[in-house]
TrEMBL record:
It comes from the Bacteria. It comes from Donghicola mangrovi. Residues 44-208 form the Thioredoxin domain. PANTHER family: ELECTRON TRANSPORT PROTIN SCO1/SENC FAMILY MEMBER, LINALOOL DEHYDRATASE_ISOMERASE DOMAIN-CONTAINING PROTEIN. This is SCO family protein. InterPro entries: SCO1/SenC (IPR003782), Thioredoxin-like_sf (IPR036249), Thioredoxin_domain (IPR013766). Belongs to the SCO1/2 family. Keywords: Copper, Signal.
Length: 208
């Protein structure tokens, strides 16, 4: 499995985006109950990623991380006007969740908009409904979105455009596995297949 190769590899930087933390491949910690599952770690430890947030769900209700992360969740930061990357990544995540469901595991896919100016709760709800019936969409004020993004060390930037309604966003593309009792435990790159993601997540779910 790819996991075993990654755990045995020497430390190497995978990505540094904007002001985000450096993601590295590293050996697992013997005191970590998820050590055999980890293919990656964050500089400073997994505790550097995640934490409290307050956002608005697709039904217009203000929610916190405790409201959202009540079961294993796969978080992705993107935007609904994204022409290619976000639809591909969110569909891949939904497929991984469905594979796990067939294996008897319950994981919630979550989409967090980094474009609150256009992504109202109604817009986000339409987007998530077209991707997966169980996908939860979140948006919020610019300040709320920024705080959530900073908690997960994601990067996003609005590109200038002549038409203010048709701009694009630069953003990081990691997906984050978050567990109710443990918080953030792993991130997944966008080059992984649904099957690879499902295999990786299953290891964490078995170790909970």
């Amino acid at each position: 499995m790819q996991k075993a190769l990654a755990i045995g590899a020497a430390a190497a930087v995978v990505a540094v985006v904007g002001g985000t933390a450096a993601f590295v491949l590293t050996r697992g910690n013997a005191d970590d109950k998820f050590a055999e599952c980890r293919t990656s770690a964050v500089a400073g430890g997994a505790g550097q990623i995640g934490g409290p947030f307050e956002l608005v769900d697709e039904n217009g209700r203000t929610v916190t991380d405790q409201d959202v992360i009540q079961r294993p969740s796969l978080l992705y930061f993107g935007y609904t006007f994204c022409p290619d990357v976000c639809p591909f990544d969110t569909v891949r995540n939904a497929d991984a969740v469905d594979i796990l469901k067939e294996r008897g595991y319950d994981v919630q896919p979550v989409f967090i908009s980094i474009d609150p100016a256009r992504d109202t709760p109604e817009v986000v709800k339409d987007f998530t409904a077209n991707i997966h019936p169980d996908m939860l969409g979140l948006t919020g004020s610019a300040e709320q979105v920024k705080a959530a993004s900073q908690a997960y060390r994601t990067y996003y930037k609005k590109n200038d455009a002549e038409d203010p309604e048709w701009y694009l966003m630069d953003h990081s593309t990691f997906s984050y596995l978050v567990l109710p009792q443990d918080g953030f435990v792993e991130f997944y790159r966008r080059d992984l297949s649904p099957e690879q993601m499902a295999d990786g997540m299953q290891c964490f779910l078995d170790a909970m």
